[in-house]
Specification:
- The chain has no helices and 28 strands.
- The protein is mainly β and 352 residues long.
- Strands 1, 2, 3 and 28 form a four-stranded antiparallel β-sheet that branches. A four-stranded antiparallel β-sheet has the order 4-5-6-7, with no helix packed on it. It has a four-stranded antiparallel β-sheet with strand order 8-9-10-11, with no helix packed on it.
């Protein structure tokens, strides 16, 4: 989370159907002139690995940053990958022998989508540039049933002069197994990927397709199975997708009509991509959802950055919904201008 040039990380504990959660601690990182945490992973032995970026030099370049936090919020170490140049890490997932990270680096030849593997101390084991023409980015990743790394984002297509949805599969040894551009009219970006509800059938992606939320299915080899757009008035983007226990998919993102402010939107799809329902809400200012999780025994939690338009800036808020999208509780994570981008569940039914 970014606030006044320092890292912050909040930990929130709650039981699935308990009362409003309690904020237990927040972790402050060293001031480096501007920094952001984009994602985190829970370590089985206790604590967390977080990834993001820190500002370097006078040109506002970013350096990919990896940090370790113990279970009580103490920052144990920070590892800044200066060798990668202007780079950011957007997503992390735990492997058997380390962690997989995806992101982007920029140089004179353009933007490059990166997949890298780190050990438990944050040391880089290998880095792979997986792009085509030097203008790609990777925003999210997951694992295949075989343990391969699946990362998604966009790739600029020189033939169409537009961004295509982009997906890659990389082995844990750093071998590019396949990469796919899904060519379609207009600009498209994938922001989130999860295994399909039938985990053997492939993966589900969501993002933005020329201002519409899309849901897309690809198989284990990256072949395009189906894609559906949720077309409503205004501009929409899907930022996160989850698979409810009863089947289908729920997408969280934002919707904006004309020159107005954005509102949060949740869209429910069945297993084949047909829209079941949508639900939107917002304040007098801009509101955007960045993460959604299905939690046992039923229902969802959604991370929202909300700005009421009163001059106080953004506040990160967690909403707890029942399966029918009625609000059970909400909790505001900060009383100062701040943003949160990622929400994960811990082993003790809490959240980071």
């Amino acid at each position: 989370m970014k606030k006044n040039s320092v890292y912050f990380l909040f930990f929130v504990f709650l039981s699935a159907y308990g009362a409003e959660p309690e904020i237990l601690w927040n972790a402050r990182f060293s001031d480096s002139g501007g920094s952001t945490v984009w994602d985190s992973a829970v370590i089985a032995g206790g604590g967390y690995i977080v990834v993001g970026e820190v500002t370097t030099g006078l040109s506002d370049d970013k350096a990919l940053n990896i940090s370790r936090i113990d279970r009580d919020g103490l920052v144990l170490w920070e590892n800044t990958a200066l060798s990668l140049g202007n780079a950011s890490a957007y997503s992390i997932v735990e492997l058997i022998d380390g962690f997989a990270v995806c992101g982007i680096c920029s140089d004179s030849s353009g933007k490059h989508g990166l997949v890298l593997k780190i050990d438990n101390e944050g040391n880089t084991l290998w880095v792979l540039d997986v792009g085509y023409d030097g203008n790609e980015a990777l925003f999210d990743l997951t694992l295949s049933p075989e343990g391969h790394i699946i990362a998604v984002g966009y790739s600029y297509n020189k033939e169409t002069s537009a961004n295509d949805v982009f997906a890659v599969c990389v082995s844990t040894a750093g071998e590019l197994l396949w990469r796919k551009r899904y060519v379609a009219p207009a600009y498209q970006t994938a922001y989130s990927v999860i295994p399909a509800a039938d985990s053997e059938s492939g993966f589900i992606l969501t993002g933005s397709d020329e201002g519409n939320i899309f849901l897309m299915s690809i198989d284990q080899r990256g072949n395009w199975v189906w894609k559906t757009n949720h077309r409503i008035d205004g501009i929409q983007s899907g930022r996160s997708v989850t698979s409810p226990f009863e089947g289908g998919y729920m997408v969280a993102g934002s919707t904006r009509l004309g020159g107005g402010y954005s509102d949060v939107i949740l869209v429910s799809f069945d297993e084949s991509g047909s829209v079941i329902q949508e639900h939107s809400w917002g304040t007098d200012g801009p509101d955007n959802a960045y993460s959604i999780l299905e939690i046992p025994p039923a229902g969802f939690v959604v991370l929202v950055n909300s700005n009421k338009g009163t001059g106080d800036g953004y506040r990160p808020i967690i909403y707890r919904f029942d399966p029918w999208l009625s609000v059970i509780w909400t909790v505001e994570l900060s009383d100062f201008n701040s943003l949160c981008y990622s929400l994960i569940q811990t082993f003790d039914e809490g959240f980071v």
